[in-house]
Amino acid sequence: MRYLPKKKIKYAYLSAVLLLLIAAFLGLVLGSVPLSFDDLLRALTGDADTPEARILLYVRLPRACAGILCGAAFSVAGAVIQGVLANRLASPSIIGVNAGAGLAVTICAVFGIIGGFSLSLFAFLGALFSVMLVSLCAAKWAASRGTVILMGVALNSFLGAIADAITSFVPEIAVMNNDFKVGDFSFVTYDQLLPAAVIILLSLSVLLSLTGELDVLTLGDENASGLGMNPTLMRTLFLIFAALLSGAAVSVAGLLSFVGLLVPHAVRRVSSAQSKHLLPLCALFGGGFVSLCDTLARTVFAPYEIPVGIIMAFLGAPFFIFILFKGRGGHRHA
């Protein structure tokens, strides 16, 4: 396992916090209606009667919070899944976890469930079904790491086809489904964000308390058993919390792709591979990265706005191809 001097770890944390703060600030002040620092202060100190304050409090603040929370959730879920499956190419959007949550959200929309804890719960169940299916199939057939990715791709296509079929029979949800399939924060509200935020924060707290167990699990089942761990139980526990993170994030952001692949890889290059540093840095860098990308998505082409998922796809697809051909993503690194 790769270790870095404490000084470099501190620099990594400092960079992550700075990115998060800068991204949050830009997300609040930039947009079709530019806001000054004075507008920001007045709105946050209780003067909510101006149009600028209403834009800030009811449009940009929930959107910025959603970007930070969902970015953290997808990134940490990706790091956990990669560690548990011993596959650096695995991520929630690639092995079908997001697609399972997305199918559950589509079914909920048919029955009029468009927010609250019920939506997050069903999204979690869909994500859990997908990740457990891939994990169980990989274990049963002793699938190689490349085969696990292919199973995930096939599952993605299958679940996406079911969601598209449902949309064809219930065209009323087609408009929502288009934005949802790409990944977007345009219509985030506090009512939609709050349940997901609670689930994400609680799941992150639990995972950050289990970083030592995650490091042991990544050594392999035989070594983990020799150290007194039940690897099957711990693997299931970690996959459950990864599914909770992914499901809650999908219920807010839609099928935002590649975050769980890009961020863990980038963090491993600038920090230790120890989970006690990897997971919190993924949360910080992931939250800042997604929030910054969302700000770019709504300002670069102003007055037009594009879904943040398009930017993620432009960044993530070439990166995925790069690590695939370089042969680094599918191997375990000590």
Short description:
The protein is mainly alpha-helical.
Descriptive overview:
The protein is mostly helical. Helix 3 crosses helix 12 (259-270), helix 4 (97-110) runs antiparallel to helix 5 (116-140) and helix 12 crosses helix 13. The radius of gyration is 20 Å and the shape is globular. It contains 14 helices and no strands. The protein starts with 5 loop residues before the first helix and ends in an 8-residue tail after the last helix. It has one domain (6-58, 66-326): Orthogonal Bundle (ABC transporter involved in vitamin B12 uptake, BtuC).
> What is the average of the pLDDT values?
85
**Highest CATH level, the class:** Mainly Alpha
From the alpha-carbon coordinates, what is the Rg to the nearest angstrom? 20 Å
Question: What would you call the quaternary organization?
Answer: single chain
How many E-type strands? Answer: 0
Question: Cα distance, first to last residue?
Answer: 4 Å
Percent of sequence in beta strands: under 5%
Provide the domain count: 1
Could you please say which CATH topology applies here? ABC transporter involved in vitamin B12 uptake, BtuC
Shape: globular
CATH superfamily label: ABC transporter involved in vitamin B12 uptake, BtuC
Which architecture name does CATH use?
A: Orthogonal Bundle
Low-pLDDT runs: 328-334
SSE succession: HHHHHHHHHHHHHH
Treating each run of at least 4 consecutive H or I residues as one helix, how many helices? Answer: 14
Give me the secondary-structure category: mainly alpha
The largest pleated sheet is described as: none
Helix proportion: over 70%
